[in-house]
Structures are given as structure tokens and as C-alpha cells.
Amino acid sequence: MTQAPIAAALAVLVRDRQVLLVRRANPPDQGLWGFPGGRIERGETVFAAAERELAEETGLAGTAIRLLDALDLLDHAPDGTLRHHFILLAVLCTPGSGLLRAADDALDARWFDADALADDVRLSRDVARLARAALP
């Protein structure tokens, strides 16, 4: 059975040279830190999906302003077979209102210094690169 790639939006929220990351509760990337995000729903724009996922996972509002990058995420089973192919659309967002809290499928949510994402923090692929690209 052939399954088409799954489109997903990532909300890259920047505040004072810090980026907002969430620790994922579910595969792929379970337990790793990454940008809030998820599948784009039918009829939803990429920007609307980024804003929705940001609010659902962190309690924060934000405004999507531009596309930063598009990434392929290939999720393989231990035997090497392809389980899922995600196309991740990273969207730069400006902060709005709300109180930061981890929700939905995020175990934790916090701000990180984008210039110095620590090696001891387990990050999803390309997070550090995208964080630097999002800085003014």
C-alpha cells in the first residue's frame, strides 16, 4: 500500500533571541524537543495550522508571518521499512498573548536561547538550524 506524504506545520516562535520548544509525547521524535506543530487539516492553510498547533500545544497565541523552510522527515521502523513520510513546513511566528503551558501532545514547553541550544537537550533534527535561521 502506498501512502502519500503527510503535510505538517511547525510554529517557530521567537522572542528576544529565544525560541519556544516542546518535548514530544508521541512518535515520531517522542521525548525530543522540537517546535510546536502537527498535521495540516483538510481545508486549513499552512499559516492557520501553525497558529492552531502553537495554541493547542503551548497555550500561546502567535501570528504566522512567513515560511522559513520545508523539510522531509522519514520515519522508519526498526527493520528499516518506511512507516511515515512527513513534509514539515516551518513557519516563523511572532508572539501574541497567553500563558505558557504544555498541552495536547506536548510533555513540556519552554523557551530556549536560540544562539546556544545546549548539547544536553535532545533535539529533533534541524531544530538548532531552524532556530538560528529564525533570528533577526
Reconstruct the topology from this structure:
Layout: E1 6-15, E2 18-24, E3 33-34, E4 37-39, H1 46-58, E5 60-76, E6 82-98, E7 106-113, H2 127-134
Brief overview:
This protein is α+β, with helices and mostly antiparallel strands and 136 residues long. It is 15% helix and 47% strand. Strands 1, 2, 3, 4, 5, 6 and 7 form a 7-stranded mixed sheet that branches.
Distance between the termini: 44 Å
- At the first level of CATH, the class is Alpha Beta
Determine the number of helices (DSSP H or I, runs of at least 4 residues): 2
Low-confidence stretches: none
* CATH level-four homologous superfamily name: Nucleoside Triphosphate Pyrophosphohydrolase
CATH architecture: Alpha-Beta Complex
How much is the average pLDDT? 93
> Mind telling me the C-alpha Rg?
14 Å
Number of domain units: 1
Q: Main β-sheet: number of strands, strand sense, barrel status?
A: 7 strands, mixed
What is the total tally of β strands? 7
- Strand and helix order: EEEEHEEEH
Class by helix and strand content?
alpha+beta
Shape: globular
Helix content: 10-25%
CATH topology grouping: Nucleoside Triphosphate Pyrophosphohydrolase
Beta-strand portion reads: over 45%
